Amino acid sequence: MEVLNLEKQKDQRAKQIKKLQKNLSSIRKIAGWTAATLGEKIGVTKQTISNLENQKTPMNFTQYIAIRAVLDAEVENNKDNTVLPKVIAILLDSNDELDDDTYEEVQKSVEQVAASAVGGVSGAALVSVFAALVPLAGTILGAMSALNWKKLLK
């Protein structure tokens, strides 16, 4: 039984790491960071962030923990960016609440939101873009069970 739980936990970690790596570019842009800025925050180079975002190298668990920690700090310290915590909740913390098609649809919309953020859209305007492109965000967030990513540290 314990071996089964350990395997389940490893599988959950792998899924979470994959989700973060797949969405890292969009999340980073919505946070308002360049690849160099994120790299500085977690102690790696801009090239490492680029390689992660482009799937050239797999994200390891240590990188996952570091990135999630700086994202948590950003959410906590930058209350003006109300889109970032919503995006993190939907793309990273939704366990299996979203079917694959819905997840992909939301993911594409978030990429458009990220492009708007890079284009200089911020604050209330970015919230409007997010609301327009991800109309089911409220429904998704309301239906989600809260996953505390820190549970993966066990």
Largest sheet: none
Output the helix-strand order: HHHHHHHH
Number of helices: 8
Helix content: over 70%
Strand content: under 5%
The total count of strands amounts to 0
Q: Any low-confidence stretches, pLDDT <50, length ≥5?
A: none
- Specify the overall morphology: globular
Radius of gyration: 15 Å
Structural class: mainly alpha
Summarize model confidence as the mean pLDDT.
87
Distance from N terminus to C terminus (CA atoms, Å) equals 17 Å
List keywords for this structure.
0% strand; 154 residues; mainly alpha; 8 helices
Can you lay out the helices and strands and say which pair or pack?
Elements: H1 2-31, H2 35-42, H3 46-53, H4 61-77, H5 83-91, H6 100-118, H7 123-133, H8 137-143
What does it look like?
The chain has 154 residues and is mainly α. Helix content is 71%, strand content 0%. It has helices at 2-31, 35-42, 46-53, 61-77, 83-91, 100-118, 123-133, 137-143. The two termini are 17 Å apart. 27% of the residues are buried. The mean pLDDT is 87.
Gist of the model:
The chain has 154 residues and is mainly α. Helix content is 71%, strand content 0%. It has helices at residues 2-31, 35-42, 46-53, 61-77, 83-91, 100-118, 123-133, 137-143.
